[in-house]
């Protein structure tokens, strides 16, 4: 298997990993109305958490526990949950926008830790030579990638099914109630703060979990992988796919990531040389425009919230 | 007989109708964009000249440049398309070690494609290669940080600097160069007053500068890229820091001198690998100036040209556009006792002739003689630069022998 | 130590200028405007553009690195930044007002911030720029303390601006209406204040102060498309410390954040400096979410 098929497998592994992030974000924004402005931070916590747990021992460093990969990923997800708890407890009883500000802040702080806390994170050089799960079982890299794609696809499917069940369960209905009419929810004896906290932490756990899967595939982790732009990319995936719609979240992840990787090539070929260094700006402007224009003109996203979830128009 | 004749003519005529691709992953956009485009041009220059000399193995070379946007996930994706869709036997790049490393481990090595970087200087590659993690597919045309640090420590000693502050960019490049410098300086009996890391793309480095000024240093070693370096240098000078400055190789750019002001840099000395004097260097410099109308000042130009040239010559030598063949041919056309060929159309023509005759070739490039060690690293000569009359000038050169002697002095 | 104190006050005063606008918009328009920090970037670059159009620098004023044109450029920048703010409000925020989820508007400001920053990057490029390329050398004023003449100007200018704003808010009808709306919107509406006029002026004042902050920042540090982005967290921290809607609180909050950032280098490596506003923010949110001077009204609005 070579050529386009091999590339497609590779591309889908990354895109499906992001789709789990987008579904986590969808739980927060699409179903609960919580604005997480620091997606990349929780993704990074999951990735670094996994890397430290599964990585080989390094001289003079914290971590390198050499644990099995599944434990590492779950550990990374748990750390992301912990980070979410710290911000969530501080802000969710306050005005909603405080959560946005605090998540923005924690993402910046996490990036600084990744870059500077060398004993734990490897600093600017990152952590290299991380073991990739079950690599020696497969005869060729192409087969291995196919295997990994299977794993990621199954996990994305499991997350999808679990979330679909969750949002139609009694808990999901309370979620919707809190989102749409807090006073009513309160009068029914539901604690909106607690419900929101659950949704936020669960969403961040999924984001951190995807971070672990990413590390397992790339076998390497560095601060460059977790730049603030990733937060915007993930948001664009959700907004394009349509918030409140998990199938849209998956489609959005694949579509936006595909556009992003292709547009770089396109811009570098179309733009005159002297403007090329600004070509990245054009790409990001497109992302920004996509977000703002979708909010203004297609508030239900390109795919949109399904009627079963809410009969009201508009994202909430 | 007739068939044989036809085959013979087919190989010479096929220069027009067969094509091989060579890939490059560089930061055309993103944080390294300021230097990335020009580096891309340097690779293009080598490919153009090789095509003019008749192509590789009788085929036209297509140079496929992809942008990594300064981020590993995009870079890995770009390399993957090059390898799987464009079928390139060689990937040139990336610029940042943080991009080159995941490309190497998750794309090129598994696919048995040779990767040659112009610009990634982190020591992690040496470690990885030594432990067998690269299967020999990794090469780089710029020396690692250690020789640079050793030469710089020697310069500091010559200048009589006793207590040196180091401000370095918090990247793999800055971290490793600063550490090597500290070790070398202390081995030579000097003292490093403080080591201050700064994060890239900040508006101000005043806090870092203040902290570095604490130890009352008599000199500053600034390890930075031009834009951030200018910010740090301006604030350093502005707040009373000494103008006895030592500057790392990435700062050898007009942009840096213009932003800081040449009048403040008269005491500064910088280092850079590559541009020693000699016909091979002149050949590149002339070709560059002729094509782009400016002198090739800027990080990565010479090393990128050589990365591309080495890859193409290895393909010609091996007779096949295949990653493993390229890997195994690279040392045949660089080290050894063959006839010396230089950059440029004429040089490549001569190299092709010699290879066709089965004679050994030794490429001496834009960076001078190139010898890859077992880990794919080169040690090279260095030049010492300064600023005179508002322009960058070369003050001194250290040939490989002198560099080796300096390293030997420290290693004892 | 002395140097760190002086630097902290200086950075703090610039944060304060930006935070005033942010606290007013958060108080009056009732949403956290992530795009506010980009007004600082925009203002700084508009002044650069205006300067370029005015041609070569006139003779610098005294020991300062700049002359009268910069002051004119600052006024032009304030006007252009106000126009941008009004335009964004008209095109994006107002149409989104009244959407069922209040956070839609906050999220849109997040997208707008990215847009503004990238447009600046596209027009002016990513490398550092300066109003004057001549390097100013700091003057030693005390043992261990060096100050740029420009920095004294910045400090003086900030003080004058804050005092004028104070009088505006205390003495004029419009100013009183703004304060009323910021501190207690329900009460203000009952009192028959024309909120549309007040909102328009809130944008103009907030944007102008941001532009001034941007120019002063560009003067003492440099211009980069990221300057606003890096100030965003300090701005929010300053606003929340001072209490949302409280102008005096924003100034105090700005100084606290500036000083904390600057003094933090004695405890932690300078590369962690950017996390300091977040730590302060988190402490305030846990301990006293209304801020030092805030009324329970805003933070407790849930």
From TrEMBL, chain A:
Main location: membrane
TM spans (from-to): 6-27, 34-55, 67-92, 99-125, 145-163, 200-220, 226-242, 249-268, 280-297
Gene Ontology MF, one: branched-chain amino acid transmembrane transporter activity
A Pfam family that the UniProt record links to this protein: BPD_transp_2
GO cellular component, one term: plasma membrane
Keywords tagged on the record: Cell membrane, Membrane, Transmembrane, Transmembrane helix
InterPro entries: ABC_transp_permease, LivM-like
Subcellular location: Cell membrane
Keyword Nucleus: no
Membrane disposition: Multi-pass membrane protein
Keyword Membrane included in the entry's annotation: yes
Lineage: superkingdom: Bacteria
Protein name: ABC transporter permease
Lineage: Bacteria, Pseudomonadati, Pseudomonadota, Alphaproteobacteria, Hyphomicrobiales
Automatic annotation (TrEMBL), chain C:
Organism: Devosia limi DSM 17137
One Pfam family from the record: BPD_transp_2
Chief site of localization: membrane
GO molecular function terms noted in the UniProt entry: L-isoleucine transmembrane transporter activity; L-leucine transmembrane transporter activity; L-phenylalanine transmembrane transporter activity; L-valine transmembrane transporter activity
UniProt keyword terms in alphabetical order: Amino-acid transport, Cell inner membrane, Cell membrane, Membrane, Transmembrane, Transmembrane helix, Transport
CDD domains reported for this sequence: TM_PBP1_LivH_like (cd06582)
TM region positions: 12-32, 44-64, 70-93, 105-131, 151-169, 197-219, 231-259, 271-287
Subcellular location: Cell membrane
Superkingdom of this protein's organism: Bacteria
GO cellular component: plasma membrane
Family: Belongs to the binding-protein-dependent transport system permease family. LivHM subfamily.
Topology class, membrane: Multi-pass membrane protein
InterPro entries reported in the protein's UniProt record: ABC_transp_permease, BCAA_transport_permease
Biological process according to GO: D-alanine transmembrane transport; L-alanine transport; L-isoleucine import across plasma membrane
Designated name of the protein: Branched-chain amino acid transport system permease protein
Regions annotated as coiled coil: none
